[in-house]
Amino acid sequence: MKKQVWGLLVLCLITIALASQAWSVIGESWEQTVPRAKNSGQRTPIANTHEVKSFNAHAFAGSDKSEPRCADTKVVNVTCPPYNAVPDDNRDDSRAIQAAMDALTLSGGTLFIPAGTYLFNNPLVIHKPVHLVGEGASTILTHSRDLGTDGAANFIRIGGAAAVTQNVTLSDFTLQGPTGIDLRTVMIRIVSNVRGVIVRNLLFKNVSSSCVLVTGKSIEKIEISDNRAEEFYEQFVELGSGGISDVRIHHNVAKSTRGHPKLGSTEPFGIAFEPARSGEITDVSIVGNQVSFDGMSMTELINTGGVSLSRGRSRAVPYLYRRISVQDNIIRKVGVGIRVQTLREGIVSHPGSVVISRNRIEGATNYGIQVKLAEDDVHRDTASITENSVRGYSAQAHNRYDGIHLAGRGIGVEITGNEILPVADRKDGYGRYGINIEPGIQNPVIRDNKIAGYLSGPILNKAASGGRAGQ
Ligand SMILES: [Ca+2]
Q1: How remote is the CA of residue 142 from the centroid of ligand 1, in Å?
Q2: SS3 content of the chain, % helix, strand, coil (to 5)
Q3: Can you give the pLDDT at residue 4?
Q4: Residue 35 pLDDT more than 90?
Q5: Which end of the chain is more exposed for a tag (fewer CB within 10 A), N or C?
Q6: 64: buried, middle or exposed (CB in 10 Å: 19+, 13-18, 0-12)?
């Protein structure tokens, strides 16, 4: 009995240490180390963010299959009795894995899924502190039809209970949709009353909707890092409501070649904020990700984007984006690189703010960076756009698009140290202005930008008097 108590205590301490470590790292390097859980075999890092030019999938070749160890009392192997999930037999494993989840005590635990393919005919619902961990990309959770909970499509759903769901980690496995079938299932849906979710080192394949959708009320501390997505038809990550704070989307690789086949001209984005319900989305950092839509046709591409802070789905929904940081991302072959449709709408309590810094945008077909602050003077929104590299072209409508476009009414705006240049080896068909600032921005600081190749000129500054313009 004493031993068990000590065991529990140690486990708790380890959990606390790991959790605090995860949240204390700020501005870390791109070097990734993937933590290994006990009782798991060799696991492979999923997102290799060092790769810039080619999205090579060699990291997913698979990993050594380890023998299930059923005697381990700290980690529940879902293939062991009494749960007995069976990989690679094309028969349902959702009931076995949900049963293992439900059998955990309220304090949670670790569920280990050995390498192999597991079929889900029902979604997995998580309300407890659990670490669902596989052996890397070779642990594959898949579905062949739409899955959902309470009318909402999702493969894995976290939260939504009356009590707060805390400290959930999903790591080291593949979430895979079927190919060639037009489904619409969100892979991971994080809903209301959630505090502390880590989605790390997952591989998303053939996703028929978004890879991760965060939407609901009272959602805090979400980390989505070191994942990789290959083919997703809506968003890699969508923040779909107000009421979300403290989100880190770091070091992911997301690429797709088309929008949803049944939704017509959808607008797939790497990371999109699109609140359907009112409230604030605050303290979000989007750092070190790679987003690409290589392979999409020009007509499809024009509607895509790397990062989008979109308008709410209805104008009647007041929302606010505050302390949003978009830094060190590489965004390639998209419509608009980074877009802020407006930082706030309706009556909100604070000004909006966004920092867009050190991103590399290559081959944006319309705007490189487009930011619109709110139109009113109720608050003074701010934006900082610094040290980005924008290499774009506007083959379709070069008289409409700018490298950096800024509109609305804001204060303390700076656009400094950016490079806004043509794509290599291309001499014509560029955009309108390198930097285009609409009236309403007060005294913007525009300095040290390097601009070449724009048809109408490097900078058009229509901002309020006193604006300082210069190369
Ligand atoms: Ca099975």
Answers
A1: 10
A2: 10, 40, 50
A3: 52
A4: no
A5: N
A6: exposed
**CA 326 and chain centroid, separation:** 11
Residue 225 CA to ligand 1 center (angstroms) comes to: 28
pLDDT digits (tens, 9 = 90+) for 308-323: 999 877 777 899 999 9
Q: What is the dihedral of CA 235, 304, 437, 350, to 10 degrees?
A: -20
Q: How many angstroms does the Cα of residue 40 sit away from the middle of ligand 1?
A: 19
Radius of gyration of the chain (CA): 23
- How remote is the CA of residue 87 from the centroid of ligand 1, in Å? 5
Distance 317 CA to ligand 1 centre (A): 44
How high is the mean pLDDT of the chain? 84
From the CA of 340, how far away is ligand 1's center (Å)? Answer: 44
How far apart are the CA of 77 and the centre of ligand 1, in A?
A: 14
Q: With 90 as the cut, is the pLDDT of residue 380 above it?
A: yes
Give me ligand 1 centre to Cα 86, in Å. 4
How remote is the CA of residue 71 from the centroid of ligand 1, in Å? 22
Does any domain span residue 4? Answer: no
CATH number of the CATH domain containing 235: 2.160.20.10
Range in 145-159, 163-177, 363-377, 382-396 the model is least confident about: 382-396
Which string of b and e fits 120-139 if b means at least 16 CB within 10 Å? Answer: bebbbbbbbbbbbbbbbbbb
User: Has residue 162 been placed in a domain?
Assistant: yes
Instruction: Confirm whether 362 is domain-assigned.
Output: yes
CA of 139 to the centre of ligand 1 (A): 12
How many structural domains does the chain have? Answer: 1
> Ligand 1: distance of its center to the CA of 327 in Å?
42
Residue numbers of the domain that contains 406: 35-461
| Span from the CA of 188 to the centroid of ligand 1 (angstroms) | 20
Closest CA to 126 of 104, 101, 151: 101
Q: Are 418 and 383 in contact (CB under 8 A)?
A: no
Checking if the pLDDT of 105 tops 80, the result is yes
Rounded to whole angstroms, the Cα distance separating 120 from 137 reads: 17
- Alpha-carbon distance 337 to 382, whole Å? 19
Q: How far is the CA of 84 from the centre of ligand 1 (A)?
A: 9
**Ligand 1 centroid distance, CA of 79 (Å):** 10
What is the C-alpha to C-alpha distance for residues 105 and 188, in angstroms, rounded to an integer?
23
CA of 239 to the centre of ligand 1 (A): 32
Q: What are phi and psi of 265, to 5 degrees?
A: -80, 75
Residue 39 pLDDT greater than 60, yes or no: no
Write down the pLDDT at residue 363: 85
- Domain contains 130: yes
> What pTM was computed for the model?
0.86
